[in-house]
Amino acid sequence: MRKTSLCNRVNVGLQKELAKLSHHRTYRNGETVLAEMEATSFVGIVVSGVLRMQKSLEDGRQQLVGLLFQSDFFGRVFGGLSDYAIEAASDVTLCCYERRAFERLTERFPELEHQLMLSTLNELDAARNWMLLLGCQTTPERIASFFLILCRRSGADGWTPGASLSIHVPISRRDVASYLGTTGETISRVIHEMTRKGIIKIRNASDFDVLNKRQLVTMSGRDDLAIRPPTAAHSGSASSF
Fold first, then answer.
1. Which CATH superfamily does the domain covering 6-132 fall into?
2. Any residues with CB less than 8 A from the CB of 183 and at least 6 apart, and which?
3. What is the spatial distance between Cα 117 and Cα 4, in angstroms, rounded to a whole number?
4. What's the rounded Cα separation, in Å, for the pair 142 and 216?
5. Got the DSSP string for 91-147?
6. Engineering a disulfide at 96: which of 44, 184, 218, 231 sits with its beta carbon 3.0 to 4.6 angstroms away?
7. 137-234: which CATH topology?
């Protein structure tokens, strides 16, 4: 996790300071990490598992607005209330920092503030990607795009031609449906159609093998999500999505 997180993108001295402030917290699937409109008392990094960001609507409905994966930063630095609830979408382990202590560290180390800005820009890019996914893509395109995103997040973009890729979906089918703006039944139907076409192979409800990467990219309609061999440009942290 450290290889792709904020901790790896700062100098050794700052890494030691971060280690002194850090502590681990664990949450079970479904537990709330930060409630909506709650004052942010701590921030941190996802060590394992997945967090979901959720917004309540006036009529009582809840909309999933984002997912945070391993190495993603969560929480609001420099005060304010949390605009959305952050919940465990699976069992999670978090590396946490008391917010005010973390803020004081940014004053001592401008490098840390710089990395936070980069993380914020990554999150903004992820939000724009999500808007594109929901606003312009058909349901099959959304599902194919989601699979490609999971490939990237797992580090599987460093593929060997002719080899299959393994995808693990770390959240429930209900969360995937909410995230993609569709239903669980529709997702099942599309996945079985992808299986019939030889694009993927179902191993179990959460694990799949990609048998035809090129066809998956074509189905997504997103050449920008094409799986590429690793380069130096891919060595940084991936953004949340």
1. Jelly Rolls (2.60.120.10)
2. 177
3. 16
4. 11
5. SEEEEEEEHHHHHHHHHH-HHHHHHHHHHHHHHHHHHHHHHHHHHH--HHHHHHHHH
6. 44
7. Arc Repressor Mutant, subunit A (1.10.10)
Q: Partners of 86 in the beta sheet?
A: 34, 53
Question: What is the amino acid identity at position 145?
Answer: S
Quick one: what percent of the chain has pLDDT higher than 70? 87
pLDDT > 80? residue 22:
yes
Give the Cα separation of 16 and 235 in Å (integer).
22
Residue ranges covered by each domain of the chain: 6-132, 137-234
Q: What is the pLDDT of residues 52-105, one digit of tens each?
A: 999 888 888 888 888 898 888 998 888 778 888 999 999 999 999 999 999 999
Say what the pTM is. 0.78
